[in-house]
Design goal:
Blueprint lengths: L6 H9 L3 E5 L7 H10 L4 E5 L5 H12 L4 E5 L4 H10 L4 E2 L8 H7 L3 E5 L2 H10 L3 E4 L7 H8 L7 E3 L5 H9 L5 E3 L6 H6 L2 H18 L1
Helix pairs in contact: 2-3, 2-10, 3-4, 7-8, 8-10
Length: about 220
């Protein structure tokens, strides 16, 4: 049986501890052990991207296994059909790298938070007005923490989660700039960890980034 949490409960788990693992697994069978490793390290929010082979089935399996211990979401969602399929499989939050307002309705119907992608201030505000619970600033590496600070000066109501962060030092600075959380892809779940199935190292990395975010706050 898939656990049913309301949106406010899910949102609180995305923002505390404030690290969302963005998982682009090479094989579907990696999703379960890497999720266990992340949760052991304190990263409880795990975004399984649609670029993962058999992503919907992987979400279904890991959502059942993880239960109350973590929050499994879906990323790289580009259309409403995929959005609904992932939610039915057990995804508790939905992330798109682009501004796709059509994803808001199925998420609202299911009482799940939605994160829409944006790059400019206009896109970020449009995503907010469309009903996005969070704004995914992507790719954030080229923009930097200073951009977030400048963006939030006239638009303080935006709940921003940057992804595509390339440097460990920037994680702290993004949080200090006012981000609600950070989305960490290869900086956390590196290709080497996936290739070597080094889940102990993934747990260690998860603990490190959770501590960095905690200290920044």
């Amino acid at each position: 049986m898939i656990l049913m949490r309301n949106k406010s409960e899910i949102v609180s788990r995305l923002t505390d501890p404030g690290v969302i693992a963005v998982v682009r697994a090479q094989k579907a069978e990696q999703v379960s052990p890497l999720s266990e490793a992340l949760i052991e390290g304190g990263v409880i929010a795990i975004e399984i991207t649609m670029t993962t082979p058999n992503a919907i089935e992987a979400i279904r399996e890991v959502a059942r296994k993880i239960g109350t211990r973590g929050v499994i979401g879906v990323g790289t969602v580009l259309d409403a059909q995929t959005c609904r399929a992932a939610i039915e499989a057990g995804a508790e939050f939905v992330v798109s790298p682009i501004l796709r307002p059509e994803l808001v309705a199925p998420c609202r119907q299911a009482d799940k938070p939605i994160m829409l992608g944006a790059y400019t201030p206009t896109e970020a505000q449009l995503a907010h007005e469309a009903g996005a619970d969070f704004i995914k600033i992507f790719p954030s590496d080229g923009l930097g923490p200073g951009y977030i600070k400048a963006l939030r000066a006239p638009l303080p109501h935006l709940r921003i989660i940057p992804t595509g962060i390339a440097r460990e030092a920037d994680v702290t600075e993004f949080i200090k700039a006012g981000c609600a959380a950070v989305g960490l892809g290869s900086l956390l779940v590196s290709p080497a960890i996936l290739r070597e199935a080094n889940w102990a190292e993934l747990t260690r990395q998860a603990r490190k980034f959770v501590a960095l975010v905690h200290e920044a706050r």
